[in-house]
Amino acid sequence: MQRSLKQRLTPYGFIAPAIILLLLFSLIPILIAFVISFTGLDITGLGNWSTVKFVGFSNFINLFKDKIFIQSIGNTFYYIIIGVPLVVVLSLTIAIMINFGQNKFFSFLRLIFYTPSITNTVAVAVVWTYMYNPNGGLLNSILEKFGISGLQWLNDPTTAKISLIILAVWKAIGLNMLIFLAAIQGIPESLYEAAQLDGANWWQQTRHITIPSLRFSIFFVTVTTLIGWFQFFDEPFIMTKGGPVNSTNSVALFVYQNGFQNSNFGYAAAGSFVMFAAIIIATLIQFRMQRKQQGL
User: Fold this and answer.
1) Which domains does the chain have, with CATH numbers?
2) Dihedral sign computed on CA atoms, order 112, 237, 73, 227
3) What is the arithmetic mean of pLDDT over 236-265?
4) Which residue(s) pair with 42 in the sheet?
């Protein structure tokens, strides 16, 4: 009986370290942040918890009266609507092209596209900031040769968002390309051989075999990319500080500004949970759509 009990408890012993780490560094901090979102915690409250006051839903109500927060929500959805499809489509396209050419040149291209994904975001953002410089920056210097001059990449509210999206898409393509490439190479060759015998060309094979076989990979990349764009922070923080006139401010950056710059921790925690709820809803919608496609 003791041996049987030991055998039943052994699997839990293996996963115990992961569960403990999850509790200490994820679940408990989330619970604490949730409690803080209903308080007026600021920098004085960190030194003396007795000064912390319970404010109920005031933080959440004030959030949706805050024009900067509403603008941050709009900016974040702008990033998602443009950025997510671009990352998925470009990553998939590049993976198909690289898989089509099985030689050293295409292997080198795989390295070229993957390198930005493993490069430090801060370093990349600093370099791109110089490239976007309207006075002598690389991009404007190239465009001037085609008669286009004076583009204010990061100084104009419209072009600033596009500029950040270009950088973020460029950096995100590599990792997702490898995911698609691994999935493509897992498709049985017999499917393509049968299609060739039936007279199917490359495009027909891609449309009717490759893309349908990548349904789960496309779903996975879409969900992870969507979550990443909801948390869009590094690029606007380093390159624009949310400007000009808050045109590039994301919800994640708004939370940082209120929590770590203004020391309004309760208000920032409320904003983070609004973002958390949006991520959960978007992910559940994706899962629902995936289940419908599978006919479940």
Assistant:
1) 66-293 (1.10.3720.10)
2) positive
3) 91
4) 264
